[in-house]
Amino acid sequence: MTAPAEILEGSQQDVLLLCDHASNAVPPGIALGIAPELLDLHIGVDIGAGPLTRSLSAALDVPAILATVSRLVIDLHREPDHISLIPHVSDGHPIPGNEQADRGDRIARFHAPYHRLLAARVRAQRPRLILSIHSFTPRLEHGGSDRPWEAGILYNRDARAALPAIRWLEAQGCVTGDNEPYSGRLLNATLNRHAEANGIASIAIEIRNDLIDDDAGLARWTVLLAGLANSLRNSLACGSSPAQ
Questions:
Q1: Strand partners, 130
Q2: Are 159 and 184 in contact (CB under 8 A)?
């Protein structure tokens, strides 16, 4: 049976790292009906996000939770009733094995256990800050325009961490998207449920995947994001209230 997540421990409990799209694994018994190499593309995994999360966990000595199934099996960063929870098409690529998928079974096997684990961890650890690590492709294969951002900060209503994060990254010379290339007002399922609903400051950090697809890029962004996390620790310690 597939474990719902890979858990990394750390001695510093004020920060929790999450990575919903860390894996391109397809568990036994599920046939997506696609060429295996598609799983290595951004439709199957957030390229570089898993390694970056592991590296950042080690650098900060903080816990991290990384998902263990591909988002083509089920997207753990979607609400259970979301239309793209089990995608039939992703960036123009048909996923024929999902056409007749048992939605309830996949939720029971993967989505529900993952989110139960996150909920239990948040209750036990009670972090001051949750950082969700993602990556985005420089351009979609089918439609869309070039994405100029190096990083994006996604958030919904609570901007306590988001606005300082955007300012900090811009001060480092990073081209930073404010709710770009996606809006956290529309796609923020994991943090809405486990951070914002619990009054915990949080952001989703999106890094353009061509910047973290090798060791040098991972090292650079580990240093940057560790600096960002420490800056946010300081700003949150000042006791700012949620921004609506």
A1: 16, 202
A2: no
Give 210's contacts (C-beta < 8 A, 6+ positions apart).
138, 217
pLDDT tier at 241, thresholds 50, 70, 90: very low
Coil, strand or helix: which one is 17? strand
> Distance between CA 136 and CA 14 in Å, rounded?
27
Query: Helices 49-60 and 215-237: crossing angle, nearest 10°?
Result: 50
Cα dihedral across residues 79, 46, 66, 134: positive or negative: negative
Q: What angle do CA 72, 182, 123 make, to 5 degrees?
A: 75
Q: Return d(Cα 148, Cα 119) in angstroms, integer.
A: 35
Q: Tell me how far the alpha carbon of residue 202 is from its chain's centroid.
A: 12
In the predicted model, what is the mean pLDDT of residues 56-84? 97
Looking at every residue in the chain, the average pLDDT score rounds to 95
Spell out the domains of the chain, with CATH numbers in brackets.
5-237 (3.40.630.40)
